[in-house]
Specification:
By secondary structure, this protein is an alpha/beta fold. It has two domains: 13-27 and 267-370, Alpha-Beta Complex (Aspartate Aminotransferase, domain 1), CATH 3.90.1150; 29-263, 3-Layer(aba) Sandwich (Aspartate Aminotransferase, domain 2), CATH 3.40.640.10. The protein has helices spanning 28-36, 49-66, 80-91, 104-115, 210-218, 230-237, 248-263, 266-287, 316-325, 352-370, and strands at residues 73-78, 97-101, 123-126, 143-147, 149-150, 155-156, 167-171, 188-191, 203-208, 291-293, 305-310, 341-345. The protein starts with 27 loop residues before the first helix and ends with a helix.
Length: 372
């Protein structure tokens, strides 16, 4: 069906139509700030003060934002969280890991360690999409891989350290920057900056405990590709740089976002903002005749990624296509989940008024399709 562009009533149109789960909405003020650097930042060496000072601001800002205790360090490197899984298989897992698998991304890390020839087969605990399993302490395990927020399904999981000596490695890619954290609950809390941190992809960051740093040092003798060597990443991070050339725009936008978050009240304020956003989206879905939350257990519904099932009488693919033609983008369901649904980001950069208008626009598009 051909769609007539700009039929969406103006009072239903979000001021900003970006609701993607990553890359996410970037604040216009941050882009203006980046542009204002002119010829003094982009195109300069990442091993000189002009860029290293930005990396220093990122590391110091994350330490402040998370209130990291003495002994914790902020590491960064190129490649995103996907590359960090590979790096962790060399530099943080000594022999065997345990993985909680409840969606696409939690499963990918388990696949990495399963394929690693230098590691024993991992212990994998799996539950169906829309739920999450619980970690089980196991003496054969020296690292527990947890996922705080499964981006593919919209399931959130509270962090609980298993009893024992194993490190706790937390994938926080779609939750970092939105929740207060107890640093005692993790040894490596890692993420990419293209979601709640309103930057671009291609970078990983990790908040690492003294025990995590000790594991990295203990495994320095194990061969790893230099770009995935956490010992090299640690050495370079301490110099406020990355081993190989990073995207400078990504660094600038991340530093700007961290400052914006701190000035806005830190993680407590971000969590309150996320709760309000979740109330808007899930509240609508609970009331709607054409939508319902995919995650039925309210206690584990993500406050950053909402997965909303659409009535089977309406093709969600057609619905998102209608909205995309109206400038509302990237709310398609996660491709491998295979459900007739929309997926809506609720990161701190996304205005609540826009989320409210989005819900009205979805209802409008559903009616538009029903009457076509």
């Amino acid at each position: 069906m051909k769609h007539d562009i700009h039929r969406l009533p103006i009072d239903l149109r979000p001021a900003d139509g970006r609701f993607g789960s990553g890359p996410s909405k970037v604040r216009t003020s941050a882009l203006i700030g980046l542009a204002s650097t002119g010829s003094t930042y982009l195109g300069t060496s990442h091993r000189r003060d002009g860029v290293r000072s930005v990396v220093h601001a990122i590391r110091a800002g994350l330490s402040e934002l998370y209130g990291l205790p003495d002994g914790f360090e902020v590491l960064l490197g190129n490649g995103g969280a996907t590359a960090f899984w590979d790096a962790a298989s060399f530099g943080l897992i000594e022999r065997r890991s345990e993985h909680l698998v409840f969606g696409e991304f939690s499963g990918k890390f388990a696949s990495v360690t399963t394929a690693a020839p230098h590691l024993d087969d991992p212990l994998v605990i799996e539950s169906p999409p829309g739920t999450h399993p619980a970690a089980v302490a196991d003496e054969s395990v020296d690292a527990y891989a947890l996922t705080e927020n499964e981006t593919s399904t919209g399931v959130a999981m509270a962090l609980n350290r298993p009893v024992g000596d194993g490190l706790v490695l937390v994938d926080a890619t779609s939750s970092a920057g939105t929740l207060p954290e107890d640093a005692e609950s993790f040894d490596a809390y890692y993420f990419s900056p293209q979601k709640a941190f309103g930057s671009e992809g291609g970078l990983w960051l990790a908040l690492v405990s003294p025990a995590g740093l000790a594991r990295i040092d203990a495994l320095r003798s194990r061969w790893a590709p230099a770009s995935l060597d956490l010992g090299i990443a640690l050495d370079n991070s301490r110099k406020d740089q990355t081993y190989n050339t990073p995207a400078l725009a990504t660094l600038y936008l991340l530093a700007d976002q961290i400052t914006w978050m701190i000035d806005a009240g830190g993680l407590e304020a971000a969590a309150a903002r996320g709760s309000a956003a979740a109330s808007i989206v899930y509240g609508w879905a609970d009331r709607s005749e054409i939508a319902s939350p995919f995650v039925t257990d309210r206690s584990i519904r993500s406050h950053t990624i909402a997965t909303i099932d659409i009535d089977d009488r309406i093709d969600a693919g057609q619905l998102t296509a209608v909205l995309r033609a109206e400038g509302i983008v990237d709310i398609e369901a996660y491709r491998k989940l295979g459900r007739n649904q929309v997926r809506i980001a609720m990161f701190p950069n996304i205005d609540h008024d826009d989320l409210s208008r989005l819900t009205l626009a979805i209802e409008w598009a559903a009616g538009h399709l029903a009457g076509a």
